[in-house]
Structures
1.
Amino acid sequence: MSLETIEFTVAGDGRSAPLAGRAHCGVVGSGDLEVLLEPKTGESAVSVRIVTPVKGFDALWKRVVEHFVTESGVAGLSIEINDNNASPAIVALRLRQALAEARA
């Protein structure tokens, strides 16, 4: 199975608050994924790296992550996602779970 790596950056909006802690949520299993959140120093943008076996859904990944960043107000963050065929709803759920863990 070949994997595709998708990388992009989501600009901070100037209102977003940086995240203080790291978080790891989920597992790389069938229909699931793991999300790793790590704060970055000195940057307001959110950098994103996704490794997935599913090709051709770059625009959908970007929309899901941009919605998460806008909805949650995070900034200065690195998001790493290791996917194994998760649906967009599962992606959104794991991102929210990781954020809750990082803020706990």
Note: The first strand starts at residue 4 and ends at 10.
2.
Amino acid sequence: MSRTSPTTRLPRQRHIPLLDLGEWTTLALVLLAFAVPILVTNPQILSQANLILIAATAALGVYIMLRMDLMSFAVPCFMAIGGYTVAILGIKLGITDVILLALAAFAVPALIAIPLGKLILRLRGVYFVLVTFVLSEILQLLLFEAAPLTGGANGLVGMPPVTFFGIELFDNYQVVLTTCGLSFAGFLVAALFTRRFHFEFAAIEKNDILAESLGLACWKYKAMAFSVAAGVSGLAGFALVNMLMTAHPTSFSSMSSVNYITYTIVGGKGSILGTLVGAALLVSATDYFALRGELSPGLFGLLIIIVTLVARGGIVGLASSLLRRVKGAERKQKEPADEAPSAVEVQT
């Protein structure tokens, strides 16, 4: 009777954990963010926490697409769709329930991304990058030109406070609590989605042509990822509009996509924790360097160069590598002691 070794099993046959340690840690950190508006009253700290969570949630759109080695510049485009959807529902239709608005902010960009993905996901490399960047530019133009719906150059001003079971959330700490909830929803969706299709995305990242020749429907997974990334970006757009209480085209500049990509790469594109770490570091650095006036852009660029040169896998990748080395060194120190025969064994 033939026996099958565990090492010869196909990846699909392996047990897939619901989430790994890094993903559990990330969700725990986002949950801890709920304590900030409860324990802190300093407006500057609340504003900083708000910006970090919005930036980290937006960077998830980049992170999901990088699971398949696709560099997407379309995050501001889908943030704008999510943000303007919420603003139109709130200002023109009077819908303020935060749960309904969050569902709309996720669903509308995700649905729009499906036909768009069918067109552009056939592209690879620099062509995909270029088209996703142009997509954000085209949306900017549409936002300015469709004035009856979007307010044109004036934007949509006077977003009413969102409500949670009838309670208005308009204070600074309540706005941050809303952002925490939206950010946690975004991280939970991204973590579960990328974990569920971990092996498929890894195969596409390594070689999508080979994966397709072996029977993997790459187009299906790419379309799903593009749609989910758009939905998560829409949640970030909702949080941004709720913080500013206005939806304006300049809030979703196509150049802001560079920031979201930078957060992901500097933090570590190999782990969802990297988006949170990268956003926390670089948003804080932007705020700190802003005090240096003209030197601010140079100092910010220097920080990015140093991090990318020293930590090629990002900050989280570097920390993981150092941790593995320490564990490996400890294991080597223990092995000779375990293998050496004791004095009693030698005598017997």
Note: Confidence is low (pLDDT under 50) at residues 1-10.
3.
Amino acid sequence: MPTSKAAVPSNDNLLVGWIAPALIPAVFALAFLVPGLLGRYETEIAFRLMLYIALAEAWNLLAGYGGLVSLGSAAFVGAGAYVFTGVLNYLGLPPAVGLALGGLAGGVLAAMISPAVFRMRGLYFTVGTLALGEALRLFMVNVPWFGGSRGLFLDAEFPSREALFLWALGLLTLAQFVVTAYTRSRLSIILRSVRDDEDAAAQLGVRVFQVKLLVFVVASALMGMGGGLQAYKLGAVEPYGMFGLPWSIDILAMVVIGGLGRRYGAVVGAIFVIALAEVLSDYPEIHIVVTGVVLVLVVRFAPYGICGLATDVWRSTRNATAHRKQETNA
């Protein structure tokens, strides 16, 4: 295995590595507990932000750490949404079970298609996963069992805004725990070795298929749970929305802008994209153009996103300060 003793995190780093991610859901929980802080609008934005952070964290784990750049996120979101709706409508089970089974559906779908898509690498893998999402969308449109193009209505009481907030907070907390556990363990080192050179990792004894399968299933399960939560919020599912390409594109844009493969890139990117969307909410065409321009500029001038750029600036400033102190002491 391509691991080394020096790469194992120290206890101090472990403490910081676990506390910092825990602060993200803690901030939302604190805002919820302060009376009068979150009105109707703020609660809606917070729900959307927590949902997208969870989805972007899952995609960052898959693409940033595993090198599996997928455009099929919508397939797992849609599968989770439909399974959630079916579980509540036909089995009468509680929403918590529906979300769990929605996540299970995303993971099972990923496991089923992995032998086929893992035969492709790089851009071919990306195109293959994109085709999966579109194929599932067309399947759901044309098969009457799932309501066809009209979709299905959720046969359950609409949850309150506060209840939705808590469900989203739970999903965000779960995503932070899963991604932190993954990135703070030896699995992260093995995963990055596969990302950097799959053939070399295999020659060193890494079971490449199992490593890729595990991260693919974990990320897809989180996306499936996110789809179930979105279905719970909307009270209905239809193929054009739940299997829509915007799910895949928005998540990708958030991670790339925030910092692909950076621990907090998904969080920063989600905040940036959603804040930009709210500022330009009256001008949706301009919002799409601005987001595209920002994405191009980030890819061209800051390949590690906002987090990478901030890290570079901080290091340059620290080095310049240390250099000036040395000159002064000399």
Note: The longest helix spans residues 208-234.
4.
Amino acid sequence: MHRPAREAFFLEAQGGGRFCLATHPVGPPKGAVLFVGPFAEELNKSRRMVALAARAFASAGWMVLQLDCYGCGDSAGEFGEADWATWVGDVGLGRGWLSDWLQMQGRDLPLVLWGLRAGSLLIADHLATEPGARLLLWQPVTNGKQHLTQFLRLKAASEMLAESDAKTAMTRVKAALQAGETVEVAGYAVRAALASGMEAAMLRLPSGGTPSVEIVEVGAEGGSVSPAVAVLGERWREEGIRVGMQAHSGPAFWNTQEIETVPGVIEASLAALERLRS
């Protein structure tokens, strides 16, 4: 079997170029997939897993685009300069490039937005103004406020504070963000404009704008998806969205100490992409 060809380039955008890695499909194209990554260190921890998945998807006939949002990876800017609205705009930037690529194929092929963790929240905010894509969601974050709070707790954990001191530290960090200041947590400078955007984000889909969603989660024993995702999936089904949900055993590769992969998630996602074509 031929290995998929990979192409690195920059897309011009406000603030500077966004680094992109396109993995071209092997054989006749089936559609296009845009990867939208998780937050902060989770992005670095998951790069190996995402690279393996992108290669597998491309080998099965999918064009895959990985785009580093502003201030992340090899894109322009610093993490501490980023804000939520710019990242949501970067989702549209990548989608626009893939839409142009699909038009050049001269066939009606599907476009899938593939989100990991907080990337699902960015996708949801993007769909509020530009609906219509099909979704593949890996371990989606459903509540931005909870996700931000968990991240901010890393500051207290890194300083090994007692519980009472940790609460004081959290209060101090939140007050600084509300005052418009930038705070440093786990080596990442977080602007108030980034924190407030994430805090307001929820995994909601526009009515009638999303035909189908496939959710794949990782659990210690596999089996069922998390309760929050199960409730969300059932709600979407009641709204007429086709929803697939499944969980696989394996480590939480986005935050493990060592770099980990879960091949079962990739295999499940290949089958999910086939369902998203219909």
Note: The chain has a mean pLDDT of 93.
